[in-house]
Amino acid sequence: MNHEAPLREFLGLTFNLSNILMVTVASAIVLLIAILSTRALAMKPTGMQNFMEWIMDFVRNIIKSNMDWKTGGSFHILGITLIMYVAISNFLGLPFAITYDHVLWWKSPTADPIITMTLAVMVVALTHYYGIRMKGFKEYGKDFFRPMKFLFPLKIIEEFANTLTLGLRLYGNIYAGEILLGLLAGSLATGAFGWIAATIPTLAWLAFSIFIGGIQAFIFVMLTMVYMAHKVSHDH
Amino acid sequence: MFTLDALILGASDGFNGGDILFQLLMFIILMALLKKFAWGPLMGIMKQREDHIAGEIEAAEQSRTEAKQQLEEQRQLLKEARQDAQELIENARKQGDLQREEIITAARAESERMKEASLREIETEKDQAVAALREQVATLSVLIASKVIEKELTLEEQQQLINETIEKAGDLR
């Protein structure tokens, strides 16, 4: 399992080419699905349009359960894009992993902490941005001293804890899933006995991983909206 | 260079600043593209459908109210028509009664008149018949008288008759 990452230095920055590839692939797939399913829009939705509308309603409900739609409506697109992107990313590593010359190329992009932390930091940064934009800097600052002043240090820690847990939860789930999947796939390749012993666990774990991939995407968006609501709602 | 190694994040070693930038960029691009080509139009059509449904509901509501109103109107009209019909029937009955009375009265008068006329006619006929009879009797009497006279009138009887007749004539005058 100790595959190397295809690291390259460019303009003083380190690039993991595998991440670059998988991020691109995931984005392309999301874009493809979205555009193909909204190509022939109709008042009476059919097929994929139904699916896309279901996702929109799903995200809408997530947002509505955290804040009123008037403030939450502007995060709708962020939410849909996030849930699609994270879910597709989670699923990408499931069918296979490609290693070439001991270098791991094909995996879930979300099985890398850098990627998930990037998304998490982006989300938390957005919550701060919208908190300031929608409530004003004064209200935003005051929120750190509510409900009691001495909780201020905890509030600061909470911000970092939120960010870390948001990113690492996703990473941990997907990475662990892939490791176990890799182990099971390895047993499948050890001969007849291994094949017999590992078939059923592999199938079960694959099914479970699909479930986890979906659930984690949902949780990621849900928490995004929870944090957002904390920052932009007045009643918190 | 700043590293996250201390946190022991697993798979990758070292701080891949490039990945972060790339991921951020890709996500923003993806979101922009999706907004332009997928979510925007989809939200548009969903909004459109929402409006359409709202409009339809409103129209249905309106037509329902209209139908209710028309039903009420029709009911009113029917009621009026029924009343009118009742009135008409009543009128006709009244008129019929009146006419019957009139006809009966007229018939009665006519029959009275006819009876009167027939009575008069009968009277006239009777008078005429009596007159005719009287004439006939006179003629017959004369005939009989002449026959009787022809057969057995003797001289003295003839004389007597002449006298009688003269006498009677004198009485009559």
From TrEMBL, chain A:
SUPFAM superfamilies according to UniProt: F1F0 ATP synthase subunit A
CDD domains: ATP-synt_Fo_a_6
Chief place where the protein resides: membrane
Keyword set, alphabetical order: ATP synthesis, Cell membrane, CF(0), Hydrogen ion transport, Ion transport, Membrane, Transmembrane, Transmembrane helix, Transport
Pfam family, one: ATP-synt_A
Membrane topology listed for this record: Multi-pass membrane protein
Transmembrane regions listed in the UniProt entry: 20-42, 74-94, 114-132, 179-198, 204-229
GO cellular component, one term: proton-transporting ATP synthase complex
InterPro entries noted in UniProt: ATP_syn_F0_a_bact/chloroplast, ATP_synth_F0_asu, ATP_synth_F0_asu_AS, F0_ATP_A_sf
Biological processes, Gene Ontology terms: proton motive force-driven plasma membrane ATP synthesis
Keyword Membrane applies: yes
Compartment(s) where it occurs, according to its Swiss-Prot or TrEMBL record: Cell membrane; Membrane
Highest taxon above the source species: Bacteria
HAMAP family reported in the protein's UniProt record: ATP_synth_a_bact
Family that this chain belongs to: Belongs to the ATPase A chain family.
Task of the protein: Key component of the proton channel; it plays a direct role in the translocation of protons across the membrane.
Name used for this protein in its record: ATP synthase subunit a
Gene coding for it: atpB
From TrEMBL, chain B:
Any one cellular-component term (Gene Ontology): plasma membrane
InterPro entries associated with the record: ATP_synth_B-like_membr_sf, ATP_synth_b/b'su_bac/chlpt, ATP_synth_F0_bsu_bac, ATP_synthase_B_chain
MF terms (GO), sorted A to Z: proton-transporting ATP synthase activity, rotational mechanism; proton-transporting ATPase activity, rotational mechanism
Keywords, sorted A to Z: ATP synthesis, Cell membrane, CF(0), Coiled coil, Hydrogen ion transport, Ion transport, Membrane, Transmembrane, Transmembrane helix, Transport
UniProt feature coiled coil, ranges: 57-102
Transmembrane feature ranges: 20-39
Subcellular locations according to the entry: Cell membrane; Endomembrane system
Domain of life: Bacteria
Main location: membrane
One Pfam family hit: ATP-synt_B
Membrane topology: Single-pass membrane protein
PANTHER family recorded: ATP SYNTHASE SUBUNIT B (PTHR33445:SF1), ATP SYNTHASE SUBUNIT B', CHLOROPLASTIC (PTHR33445)
Subunit architecture: F-type ATPases have 2 components, F(1) - the catalytic core - and F(0) - the membrane proton channel. F(1) has five subunits: alpha(3), beta(3), gamma(1), delta(1), epsilon(1). F(0) has three main subunits: a(1), b(2) and c(10-14). The alpha and beta chains form an alternating ring which encloses part of the gamma chain. F(1) is attached to F(0) by a central stalk formed by the gamma and epsilon chains, while a peripheral stalk is formed by the delta and b chains.
NCBIfam families: ATP_synt_b
Function: F(1)F(0) ATP synthase produces ATP from ADP in the presence of a proton or sodium gradient. F-type ATPases consist of two structural domains, F(1) containing the extramembraneous catalytic core and F(0) containing the membrane proton channel, linked together by a central stalk and a peripheral stalk. During catalysis, ATP synthesis in the catalytic domain of F(1) is coupled via a rotary mechanism of the central stalk subunits to proton translocation.
Similarity comment: family membership: Belongs to the ATPase B chain family.
Official protein name in the record: ATP synthase subunit b
